[in-house]
Specification:
mainly alpha
């Protein structure tokens, strides 16, 4: 599978587990590919938003045209026209139906990649490796329960801040939302290279917890400082404001 096919399937949310591994491999070997993914995702969202506006305009124009007697003017096409209007009505209400917090969360959450310890994915088990290696191995192979235990143990013994960050990611992935919020809040009191990323994930945790008020506060801070994922933060705020 080539890079373009991977990109398309990523945008369609149709990647298989094997294809996800190929995507991760491509990102590691080609750092610019991550930017391509983000740009393509942003472009698709912009196109969808534009099409929605066009459909709204079409619906409005169609409504205005009905000021003339419809049946008298379009009797030969009445059935087709009524079907078309029904489709427009359904589309209109689908576009304007509220977006749930869970949907917004699912569309925007993905575990942050491991940038700490290079992992050999071909290994069946991490034998004779450090505790840190084991933790990130479990994390990369999506064994989040085990990874959570490992990161918790590492942070408690060493107090290294990025262990707390990845611990919180695991908790959020495992739907331990309250625990994740506590961990992200604790991480925000520390100063490391993950602090701004932690702020983004904290906003998502509040969103998943149906606390839109706190989510908005964090997202506004992300946007103000143009920090990690601030473009996505704008899009979430727009959805929240529209509902």
């Amino acid at each position: 599978m080539n890079k373009d096919q991977l990109l398309q399937k990523y945008l369609d949310h149709s990647l298989t587990e094997e294809e996800k591994l190929l995507l991760e491999k491509e990102i590691k070997e080609n750092p610019d590919f991550q930017s391509e993914l983000q740009e393509a995702s942003d472009v698709r969202k912009a196109i969808i938003a534009h099409k929605k506006e066009q459909l709204k305009t079409t619906f409005k124009t169609l409504g205005q045209s009905q000021k003339t007697p419809f049946i008298t003017k379009f009797i030969p096409y009445s059935i087709a026209a009524s079907v078309f209007i029904s489709i427009l009505i359904v589309a209109y209400f689908l576009m304007n139906s509220p977006v749930s917090n869970e949907t917004l969360f699912s569309e925007n959450f993905e575990p942050y990649r491991n940038i700490i310890t290079p992992i050999e994915r071909s290994e069946a088990t991490p034998l004779n490796k450090s505790e840190e290696y084991v933790a990130f191995y479990e994390y990369e192979t999506e064994n989040y329960e085990t990874a959570l235990l490992e990161f918790t143990r590492l942070y408690e013994s060493e107090k290294t801040s990025y262990y707390l960050f990845y611990k919180a990611i695991c908790e959020l992935q495992l739907d331990k939302v309250d625990a994740a919020i506590d961990s992200f809040l604790a991480h925000q009191k520390l100063n490391d290279t993950f602090k701004e990323k932690g702020k983004w994930y904290l906003a998502l945790a509040y969103l998943k917890n149906n606390d839109r008020a706190k989510c908005k506060i964090i997202l506004e801070a992300v946007i103000q400082h143009k920090s990690y994922n601030y473009v996505k933060a704008k899009q979430i705020l727009e959805h929240i404001a529209a509902n």
